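Subject: sequence -> structure tokens, single chain

Hey, anyone have a minute? Need the predicted structure for the following. Not urgent.
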Amino acid sequence: MRFILNLLWLIFGGGVVIWLGYLVGALVLCLTIVGIPFGVQCAKIAGLGFWPFGKRIEHDGGALGGGCIGTVCNIVWFLVAGLWIFLSHIVLGVALAISIIGIPFALQHLKLATLALAPFGKRIVAD
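Reply:
Had a minute. Here:
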């Protein structure tokens, strides 16, 4: 069932567009040394945006982005882009939730919104 939902996500849920957007963002951010940690987070979100069903987000306090550095990076991320990315996923989620068929896709946009708000110190794991 997850495979079918992921295929439908790619076609109707905007998965390809989301994946490409985050992937381009990751590549652009990785062009500079300062942007590499943010580019890695974009790549992480791109992976979830491409194939979201069957995955969940966990807090990973032991990772490099889980401590004080991660908090500072999350604040910078939030101020520069995180809020706008979060709001775009919320708007897409609400728009998809209007129809019953779009509710599973809306839930995936909400999952992406929570990760896009503060991605440092979180990891994506398969269910």
